[in-house]
């Protein structure tokens, strides 16, 4: 890990990939600030003395400014893991008002809040000539998704493009940027999709034949946070069991 006392900021640590990533980082010795909204972090995280839970609603721009902007300024995290996200189903045939409400809520949480958090970190990292941005994207950013989850796919594609833009302009200042694009992982989000399409349908699309556990993604995030592979900057790490190969 870093020899700095500066922490890692991980959004959405109450479950799934965020929880797994936070635990891996804590095991590596990082100080971790983990955001959550409705569901409190589990004992898997709170048992660590160097874990700091932070409740904030990423859909509320006022809270982003009143809570997270101050944390970024005062604590100056060395690594930002933009993990928090939502994936809600809405068919194209839905009424425009409801469809747009879901679209806007998805972009706000998955893309707008993540981009604003990164924007606040950049001058700090530039001044220190060090910092790492890890955006949790999705296989859907590259191959698209079914129509019900088009808003989710679009938000993750935007997150990938945003990260590439950051690196093109800030890589010369020692700032690293990575995207991690999982396919279906054994999380609540995958269970939601299974309710729409069926579990067998989801697994049948994965050549490896199983849904990986969140820890597999968490281990990858921990490696990228370590700063051991700066030349991977700008890359997307695809973790989808061969369901979409580039």
Characterize the structure shown:
The protein is an alpha/beta fold. The radius of gyration is 17 Å and the shape is globular. Helix 3 packs parallel to helix 4 (96-128). It is built from nine helices and seven strands. Helix 1 links the parallel strand 1 (8-10) and strand 2. It has a seven-stranded parallel sheet with strand order 3-2-1-4-5-6-7, sandwiched between helices. It has one domain (58-239): Rossmann fold (3-Layer(aba) Sandwich), CATH 3.40.50.
Helical percent range? 40-55%
The CATH homologous superfamily is called NAD(P)-binding Rossmann-like Domain
Rounded to an integer in angstroms, the radius of gyration calculated over CA atoms is 17 Å
Average pLDDT confidence is 94
Order of helices and strands: EHEHEHEHEHHEHHHE
CATH architecture: 3-Layer(aba) Sandwich
Sequence stretches where pLDDT stays below 50 over 5 or more residues: none
Give the domain tally: 1
CATH class: Alpha Beta
**Count of alpha and pi helical runs:** 9
Euclidean distance between termini CA atoms: 31 Å
Shape: globular
Strand fraction equals 5-15%
Strand order of the largest sheet: 3-2-1-4-5-6-7
